[in-house]
Write a structure and sequence with these properties.
Blueprint: E1 2-6, H1 10-26, E2 31-32, H2 40-51, E3 56-59, H3 72-83, E4 89-94, H4 98-108, E5 115-119, H5 125-134, E6 141-145, H6 151-154, E7 162-166, E8 180-184, H7 186-189, E9 197-200, E10 219-225, E11 233-239, H8 249-264, H9 275-286, H10 292-311
Parallel strand pairs: 1-2, 1-9, 2-3, 3-4, 4-5, 5-6, 6-7, 7-9
Antiparallel strand pairs: 8-11, 10-11
């Protein structure tokens, strides 16, 4: 089972709405950490997930963004008013201080809901489990950032309800991406990490940033299964040739897109022809630049469709 982690930026919410009809079919469970103060896009996305009978996790105490210090509107307008009694969702709580985390769950009023704990750092596992037991709180899922929690720490929690999340994308200045590099083998090895499922931050970094800098270069990122080697996931970076000034993003996009199209059409290509890749091909045919947010959305969509193919045995 696959748990893609979304930070709730505009293009991520658009993607979730676009693929909502497929998520239940794929048996993917998205993790959503709301970061934007404007709630209407999030409301539309959650409504779409509910209408399509999707399982999902929504984090009640975001660690970044608009709701980091005051999540009250999130509780009221999303968790209570919108989600209500829908029974295929989990309320996610990021583990900070062990006692404070348990108190946050208790004060939220969701201690008897389906709960997912998000472990983004090493905590005192025994103390956390003791505090949970004292308040009679039994998490349904434990989601661990694999790079910041040890295997010994993870072994304190039941394997059958554990998920390992990996930040696979190495963020760089767009001019500095190599043509291709290793991305992840976690979908093949998560059981060795004391987990029953896995996830990632798709083709964006797990580090939260409010916005990007000037685009001296445009890069398009596509993941692929390295069937010529060990079947692990690699990622290709198609970078524009023009890198000297922050102007002409449309021209830079078409330069990068031209490289993507040549690679996809190569007879020995390893890029799976997803609907997102087909959309890239149409953009090239029409010479159209849809904006950098949409380009990121297509890259993430391709990653989801790739895993849907691999995990289904297709």
């Amino acid at each position: 089972m696959y748990f893609p982690y979304f930070r709730g930026k505009q293009y991520e919410l658009v993607l979730l709405r676009d693929i909502a009809s497929n998520l239940a079919k794929w048996n993917f469970i998205p993790v959503l950490e709301p970061v934007r103060d404007t709630l209407s896009p999030l409301q539309r996305t959650v409504t779409s997930l509910i209408e399509n009978d999707c399982k999902f996790i929504i984090i009640a105490n975001p660690s970044v963004g608009a709701f980091k210090s005051s999540p009250q509107r999130l509780y009221r307008e999303i968790l209570h008013d919108l989600i209500g009694e829908y029974d295929k969702h989990y309320i996610g709580f990021i583990v900070n201080d062990e006692k404070h985390t348990v108190e946050t769950i208790r004060l939220s009023g969701y201690q008897e809901a389906s709960i997912a704990l998000i472990h983004n750092k090493q905590s005192d596992a025994k103390r956390l489990l003791n505090e949970l037991e004292k308040k009679e709180i039994e998490p349904n899922l434990n989601i661990f950032n694999i790079k910041s929690t040890s295997k010994l720490y993870r072994r304190n929690f039941p394997k059958e309800s554990s998920v390992t999340i990996e930040d696979c994308f190495v963020s760089r200045n767009n001019r500095e991406y190599p043509p291709a590099e290793h991305f992840s083998d976690l979908y093949l090895t998560y059981e060795e990490e004391h987990a029953a499922a896995f996830g990632d931050f798709l083709t964006v970094s797990g580090e939260f940033t409010e916005g990007g800098g000037p685009a001296y270069a445009v890069a398009i990122h596509l993941t692929y299964q390295n069937t010529k080697s060990d079947n692990s996931i690699f990622i290709k970076h198609y970078v524009s040739d023009e890198t000297g000034t922050p102007t002409n993003p449309a021209g830079k996009f078409l330069e990068a897109l031209r490289k993507l199209v040549a690679d996809v059409n190569h007879p020995r290509t390893l890029i799976h022809r997803t609907s997102a890749v087909e959309e890239f091909l149409k953009l090239y045919e029409n010479g159209h630049f849809p904006g950098l947010g949409y380009v990121k959305k297509l890259s993430m969509q391709h990653h989801l469709e790739l895993y849907a193919k691999i995990l289904s045995g297709g």
